[in-house]
Amino acid sequence: MTSLERTAYPRFKQFPNPSELAEFYTPTQSEIQLVKSRTKSYKGFFSFMVMLKSFQRLGYFPHPECVPGAVIKHLRSCLKLQSWVKAIPSERQRYQYQKAIREYLGVKPYDKNAQKLITVLVSSEAQVKDHPADLINVAIEELVKERYELPAFSTLDRLIRHLRHLTNNRLFELVSQGLTDNERIYLDRLLVGKTEDSSATLNLLKSPPHSATLTGMKLLQSKFDALMTFGDAQRLLASIAPTKTRYFSAMARAIDISEFQDFQAPKRRTLLLCLLYEAQVKTRDYLVEMFLKRIKKIHNNAKQRLQELREKHLVQTSELLGTFAEVLTATKEASNDAVLGQKVQSILDEHGGTELLIQKYEEIAAYNTNNYLPLLWRFYSAHRKTLFGLVRSLDILSTSADESVIDALKFVLDNEHKRGKYLPSGIELNFLSHHWRSLVVKEVDGKEVLVRQQLEICIFSSLATEFKTGDACVVGSLSYADFRAQLLTPSECEPMLEQYCQQLGFPANAEGFVAYLQQELTRVAESVDKICSDGKQFTINKNGEPVLKRVLSLGEPNEVEELEAKIRALMPERSVLDILCNVEHWLNWTRHFGPISGSEPKVNRDLCLLSPIF
Q: Is residue 562 within 8 Å of 591, Cβ to Cβ?
């Protein structure tokens, strides 16, 4: 059995396991009566039954000698036949029995009509699916649905591969005809290697992303710019299903330059185009992921810096607390306000005076909170140019009705060249938190302005949050694409509505659907009321609130002790060493404990003889 047969339809798998024989190979009374009416001897009766049950399970007639012995033994026991009754009929009997089985099951033999049927269906499905096993499954399901006998696997395999080849060639020609001369030259140069006038190579398309460092971001950005010199590859692949595009790109990724030269031009260019499109999509994903990682790293660095400043001012904090403790002690011991004032003033003078203490307090108070946002600029400034270039190269849209973050991003991008401290306030910033608003929004000369540096960090941080929550998307991406593009439109759903409702048993009109829901809800409510009517698990108190009671545990059955005693009798107590020796006897696991040369074992096999093998 080939790997393709193992991944194809279950009917082409081996016969069922012994545990499934009773389910698939137990004859019914009607089948026994049928076989008795068509045969005259025990041998013919048994061989007929074996062919019938095998066909019901597999969908085709296997050779009698290929039927497993377990199946024959099971059927012989079910029919109470002696062991001398054979299950192999003659050639003439086989022909007669096959005809009778087809008539009984209403199955037609595989012919040209069946071949035409699956040819049309597979040719259509091959435009979406590509794996031969998937296409074989489609063909088999259609043959079973139309009550056709399944042909030999090799017959289906040859037909499916031929149809798949024809369909793929049509797609290759269709894509190749849509390419311009410059695009053909660009794709052909991918196989030449790196030259002075070429900006992308096959190795560049296959290269993995670098680490999310500042240098890695720059290299990934330059790669994306080189890939986009071709333009948007998606428009040229509009005639190919996304699943086929992914398969072609995976195929191109596994092929080297020398193998590409063996393909015809339409196939070679289509595969390269799919690989180029996949590289563009994945590079967009990598850019967004690097953007998220760098923003997170900037925030983590600011948090770490805040902790370092706290530890740095820990001594000053202790001094101020000690001064405050002395003031409290003086307040407790002072007899009047005058004496208290003199003692407090002397305490303050001893610790440097009021102005010095106020200065220390301001330094400590600035970093004695969890607000690390004022420290972000120090770690953001080195990434500013790279982050602006990254965001500007992506087409970012909002997936919700609130586009305030996207509008603010456009405002920041338009003012990238500004170097002033403030920017005019003309955008909606309702998404800002209290801490961010205190940093970003200021009032200067009676006018509300925006602090440019803090605004940039705030917008990029908010954009990262939007990406994580799915409220922002990148056009042409995969992981960060607009989820709404994968949803069906109302015009696409309406033709399938009636069939969908029919499969689920729902009425296809609004009035009938409402009546159906009311009926089902009433039925469920009545069943729940019936269950809860005894009041053992569910009651309603005086306030009309439902109360769910604790379910009482069932008592331990009397048979538990007997079962435990039988288990202990059948499973005597053994030591760990006994168990290890038994496992070694069957698995020989100590062979893995020797050196690579295998010349000297590290575990002495005599250890395994310390206890008997059971």
A: no
Distance CA 224, CA 269 (A): 20
DSSP collapsed to 3 states, 193-258? CCCCCCCCCHHHHHCCCCCCCHHHHHHHHHHHHHHCCCCCCHHHHCCCCHHHHHHHHHHHHCCCHH
Q: Residue 208: is its pLDDT beyond 80?
A: yes
Q: Which two tokens stand for residue 57?
A: 């399970």
Instruction: Tell me the three-class secondary structure of 435-481, residue by residue.
Output: HHHHHHEEEECCEEEEEHHHHHHHHHHHHHHHHHHCCEEECCCCCCC
Q: Collect all residues with Cβ–Cβ distance below 8 Å to 565 and sequence separation of at least 6.
A: none
pLDDT at residue 456 is higher than 60? yes
Is residue 87 within 8 A of residue 64, CB to CB? The reply is: yes
608, amino acid identity: C
Q: Is 273 within 8 Å of 233 (Cβ atoms)? A: yes
Question: Would you call 190 helix, strand, or coil by DSSP?
Answer: coil
Q: Give the integer Cα–Cα distance in Å for 371 and 381.
A: 19
Alpha-carbon distance of 5 to 14, in angstroms, equals 10
Provide the token pair at 101: 């089985």
Q: For the chain, give the longest Cα–Cα distance.
A: 129
Give domain limits for the chain.
3-105, 112-176, 179-292, 314-367, 395-482, 491-548, 559-609
- What's the burial of 64, exposed, middle or buried (CB within 10 Å: 0-12/13-18/19+)? middle
Q: Rounded to whole angstroms, how far apart are CA atoms 370 and 368?
A: 7
Q: Which residues contact 232 (CB under 8 A, 6 or more apart)?
A: 280, 476
**3-state class of 533 per DSSP?**
coil
307 Cβ contact list (under 8 Å, min separation 6): none
What length does the chain have?
614
Other C-beta atoms lying within 10 Å of the C-beta of residue 312: 12
**Which long-range contacts (C-beta less than 8 Å, at least 24 apart) are formed by 574-579?**
574/614, 575/611, 577/610, 577/611, 578/611, 578/612, 578/614
The reported pLDDT for the residue numbered 594 is 55
H helices, E strands: number in the chain? 27, 7
Q: Name the 3-class secondary structure at 450.
A: strand
Q: Which of 247, 6, 248, 7 is nearest to 134 (CA)?
A: 7
Residue 481, classed as helix, strand or coil, is coil
pLDDT tens-place string over residues 225-274: 888 888 888 888 888 888 899 999 999 998 888 888 888 999 999 999 99
pLDDT single digits (tens) 361-377: 766 666 677 788 888 99
Q: How far is CA 11 from the centre of its chain?
A: 29
Burial class (CB in 10 A: 0-12, 13-18, 19+), 116: exposed
Please give the residue that has the higher pLDDT: either 271 or 535: 271
The rounded distance, in Å, linking the Cα atoms of 227 and 242 is 20
Strand partners, 396: 474
Across the strands, what pairs with 490? none
- Which amino acid is located at 205 in the chain? L
Q: What is the pTM of this model?
A: 0.69
Calculate the alpha carbon distances from 60 to 133, 148, 151 in Å.
Answer: 18, 9, 7
Q: Which structure tokens are listed for 191?
A: 């196989």
The CA distance from 614 to 612, in Å, is: 6
Higher pLDDT, 200 or 236: 236
Residue 503 has what pLDDT?
86
Token readout for 151 is: 């042909």
How far apart are alpha carbons 262 and 233 in whole angstroms?
Answer: 24
